[in-house]
Structures are given as C-alpha cells and as structure tokens.
Amino acid sequence: MSLDKKKPADGTLNWSFPLWSNLNVLANIDENENIYIATEDGNIFFLNADGTSNKAIYIENEVLRPLIIDVDGIIYLVSGKKIIAFYPDGTEKWSHEFTEDITASPIMDETGTIYVSTRDGKIWVIGE
Q1: What distances in angstroms separate CA 87 from CA 9, 30, 53, 117, one per listed residue?
Q2: Residue 36 CB partners (closer than 8 Å, separation 6+)
C-alpha cells in the first residue's frame, strides 16, 4: 500500500510514499502541506509536502481515530486510553492516559480547548 499524490491537471503521479500497513485513519495535512499519517500497526509518519519522510515514530497501540492539528501545528491523536500531542517535528509535547478507552476523535474548539469522550460516558475538557 502507498500514499500517492497525483497532479490535478492530468492525474499523473507526482510522488508516492510506501506504507507497509493499511491505513486505518485518514491522513491530515497542515497549513504548510506537511502530511501526518497513522497506520493500524501504530506507526505515525510525518511527511514533508514533497512526500519525503520527515520522521516516523511508533506508539504502543494502533490509532483508530483521525488526527487533529491546531493553529500552532501541534498534532493530537488518540490511541486506546491515551491522547498524545506532538510537535510538527514528531517530538512528544505531552500525553494523558484516561481510565477508560477514548470512544471518538478529539474535538478542538476555536480557543484550542480539546474535548475527549471516554467509554464510561464522560466528556473530558483539556485546555487552559
């Protein structure tokens, strides 16, 4: 499997990035056209706009929800009971583990506050 970027004018291949696992979430793109991909085997790929790899990291669990990106380029993902924030270069900014599995993608409002729901029916608010 691969992630392919094609030219809009004629559909010819612009670049291709090989993946050794099926995607279980959609890729997300930041304002600089950098691409972030989570695969079902727990790999997170940070790609430059030209399709070259910037960094790949591995987390313990698969990512089952789409990634979100804030206005500062911080990437947020959920995996099992954990929400993790990464800087655009792939280094971890922070993480938090809940007592129950996260049941939906995190949601961010216009102030940067993040909302997360867990299997026990609670909605958690993360922000300043």
Answers
A1: 33, 12, 16, 23
A2: 27, 28, 29, 30, 44, 45, 46, 47, 67, 69, 75
Encode pLDDT of 93-110 as tens digits: 999 999 999 998 889 999
Contacts for 21 with CB less than 8 Å, ≥ 6 apart = 1, 39, 40, 41, 43
Q: Does domain 2-126 have CATH number 2.130.10.10?
A: yes
With H, G, I as helix, E, B as strand and everything else as coil, classify residue 77: strand
pLDDT tens string 60-95: 777 777 888 998 889 998 888 999 999 988 889 999
Q: How far apart are CA 18 and CA 34, in angstroms?
A: 16
Predicted local confidence at residue 26, as pLDDT: 67
- What is the pTM (predicted TM-score) of this model? 0.80
Instruction: Tell me how far apart the alpha carbons of residues 29 and 92 are, in angstroms, rounded to a whole number.
Output: 18
d(CA 126, CA 22): 31
- Residues 35 and 52: their CA atoms lie apart, in Å, by 10
